[in-house]
Amino acid sequence: MKQEKEMPFDGDFEDSEADDDEVSQESESEEEQIQIKKKKKKVVNSSKKLIMNVSDTQYPVVKFVGKMIYKFKLSYVPYLENNNWDFCWTDNAVLPETLSKMQPHQRINHFPGMYSLARKNHLGRNLNKMQKQYPEEYDFYPRTWMLPSEYGDFKAQFQKGKAKTFIVKPEASCQGKGIFLTRSIDSINPQEHYVAQRYIHKPLLIDGLKFDLRMYVMICGCDPLRIYLYKEGLARFATQLYSSPHSTNLDDVCMHLTNYAINKDNPNFIFNEDDKQMDVGHKRSMTSVFEFLRHQKQNVDLLLSDIKDLIIKTFCAVQPILQQNYTQIENYANNMCFEILGFDILIDSSLKPYLLEVNHTPSFTTDTPLDSYIKKNLIRDAITLMNINVKTKNDIISQKKDQMQKRVLTGKKTKLSYEEKKVLKMQAQKERDEYEFKNKGDFELIYPCDKSYEEFLLHAQKLYEDWTGANIRRNLKRDTISEQPKPQSCTQKPILTQKSQLYKHVQSKVNTNLIPTKTTKPDQEITQEEPEQTIQQVQEPIQSQPQLEPDNFVTFEDYQQSESLKDLYNFAEKRIPEIQLIDLIQFRRAESKQDNSSFQIIQMSQQNSLSNLSPLMQIKSVQDQKNEKKFSIRKKNKQPKQIEQEQLYFQPLSHYQPPIQQHSISYQQQVQMQNGSFVKPKVFSLKLQHPPKGYKLQSLPILMQQNYTKQRYEQGV
């Protein structure tokens, strides 16, 4: 590495292989070139040398570092057309689609979404949003207006008495193009797109000249943020002695602007001709300026601390945008992209730094030996820091092959949980920290750091969600969930001692345990071999006290308590109105009128039939007699007949038969129609709307003929 640092670069570099490629392409026909391009798209670099794509860069220093220092094979085929490269250096922005097509071992020198910092209007808008929430923390840049959207507010600045100076810049320009100073609103076209800033009229001067610092910042991770500051930079000086702005010198750009592209054409500009003398001329090294300030007994350490702080806060304002555009989900090392940014810092007379703008493609021209020395070492240390070498590439490819083999063997793509992904990220980050600590060169890690910036990151995330509408969709979803009607809670069961689970599995117990001839388990299924035996058990009367499980049922004596009977009846009336239909089925009224002489016999049979019912049905029958429930039968198009009071009582059949047997008997006794066919019955299934907890009602078919009169069940007053 020491020999590589001493390798000189005179500013010019020509690649002989590039000429050979151009000659070979000219000799080949167009069809052959198309076939070669198709093959190159499918071919993966398997050589021992890495391929560096430099088709989209104009700077010779980049090609020199890749070819001469790292021994990369340079490729001049457009990187968007051919994916056969390992490392790409481009001078233009990168789209998220390009990043999504990259392989895990490939690296590129730009982040998608960096326009949020590089464009002057986006930078001013993002910083203004943060300043509204943190006015004291985000005071490191001049007050900024985006025109024409904020033209009204900007116009009001000229109506507050004392004249102020503003510097106006095109929103998407570089190298000082289109910049001018103004003290009148009339000089600004309200329809043009500009970025206007307050002019800092008391800058720090060296040798009577205004200057700014070009500091190189490298971001090599966005989720989480990972920021390095290069220890060397450039100090760019104006070529005219500075004086406060007034109406006579506003047009003197060589006095107020420090851009190299503007001042280099001035006859007063002095070029640096020796890289060992970095404090001479109108372009000097940043470290030489800091040494000069230390000799002036200025607190340079505090100045550097403030500069690092403003750099981190600037990235915090746009971190959600960068994270959203970084589409590599499985890149746990967070290292597929990196970017060298040029931060332009102006220092005022009180040694306070101000951020002027951020350049996502800082100039790598090497007009002077100072430029060649600084920029060559900057690019070299950046490639070393990103660990771009053959060993790293082979390790990543072998890991992908292992994953593919596991997928082929298992036939499934293993999906990692959030905890597993977090462990992999921490492991990759630990390995990266160890490597970068030993190979950072002249870079200094400024974030992560001891100071916490979590508050700014969270607020930036909130602003990004407000801008994209993500929080609106989340709030709407939350509101719709909260506005959904909750299921109506069932009426509270009567509080009875030892009866909290009275209705649990009632129907299954009625058929088995309430009339036990032999004990059976509550959850035991009835086999098909014993259907007759179970039916006989239901028809047998209760001869003794049933032996029930204490968890689900209570003893028979508890049903005889008067208070419990009232509570159970009220509960049945409120909760189970459909139970009346069950009573209607079990106590069907005789179709033929019965004589008054047989009424007493029917009444005695009714009392005897109560002993064959379950305790719940006994409770219901006793209370029905007290309330005198009445029934009436209405025929179609006929007035209801007056029914004697004795006939209002519910009259059950003397010989009750299960519904299934009634179904078969009633079907056999149907009267044939004139054409010899039977009337097709309608079959209904009873289902409780709000059954008690644990209650299961067996479906009971109700047979009603189409030409039969409707039955109406009413409760008497």
TrEMBL record:
Residues 9-33 have a biased composition (Acidic residues). Signal peptide: none annotated. It holds the Pfam family TTL. Keywords: ATP-binding, Ligase, Nucleotide-binding. Residues 1-35 are annotated as: Disordered. GO terms for cellular component: ciliary basal body. One of its GO terms (biological process) is microtubule cytoskeleton organization. This is Tubulin-tyrosine ligase family protein. It comes from Paramecium sonneborni.
